[in-house]
Amino acid sequence: QVSLQESGPGLVKPSQTLSLTCTVSGGSITTNYYYWSWIRHAPGKGLEWIGYIAYSGSTYYSPSLKSRTSISRDTSKNQFTLQLSSVTPEDTAVYYCARQYQSEYDYWGQGTQVTVSS
After folding, report:
1. CB neighbours of 63 closer than 8 A, spacing ≥ 6?
2. For 100, which of 35, 46, 68, 91 could close a Cys bridge (C-beta 3.0–4.6 Å)?
3. Phi, psi of 114, rounded to the nearest 5 degrees
4. Whole-angstrom Cα Rg for the chain
5. Is the pLDDT of residue 7 over 90?
6. Is the distance from CB of 93 to CB of 40 less than 8 angstroms?
7. Distances from the Cα of 49 to the Cαs of 8, 13, 36, 76, 103, in angstroms?
8. What is the average per-residue pLDDT within 43-62?
9. How far is CA 37 from CA 52, 71, 111, in A?
10. By C-alpha distance, which of 103, 90, 91 is closest to 20?
11. Is the pLDDT confidence value at 60 over 90?
């Protein structure tokens, strides 16, 4: 059984960089054809896909967030990490990591609340 767990600070100051890590157990992040995504849900808004890192290590980001986003991985720890720079209060959201296979997100983390405030 695959499980994902987000971790990172719950409070980030404006203009700083948000950094979250997703630890995966029960399956390798390098297994073919899986894509490992970050998704967020801001208050009063729908789910917003941020980007992914593929099994191969390639990355792809939402065009609206691309200039501020970086996703990397540590295969020795089976983790992948989101960095979102120059945050504002509009980046306040619950952040999720999830696994995508073909067209579906089949496993999700429980989510972690990140608040941007001074």
Report:
1. none
2. 35
3. -125, 125
4. 13
5. yes
6. yes
7. 19, 22, 11, 26, 14
8. 97
9. 4, 9, 12
10. 91
11. yes
* Encoded amino acid at 88, one letter: T
- Cβ-based burial of 71 (10 A; exposed 0-12, middle 13-18, buried ≥19): buried
CA–CA dist 8, 81 (Å, integer): 10
Residue with tokens 């696994």: 99
pLDDT band at residue 6 using 50, 70 and 90 as cut-offs: very high
* Sheet with 18-25, edge to edge strand ranges: 3-7, 18-25, 79-84, 69-74
From residue 53, give the alpha-carbon distance in Å to each of 25, 27, 47, 79, 81: 16, 15, 18, 11, 9
Kindly state the average pLDDT of the residues 35-62: 97
DSSP letter at 90? G
Would you say 99 and 2 are in contact if contact means Cβ atoms under 8 Å apart? yes
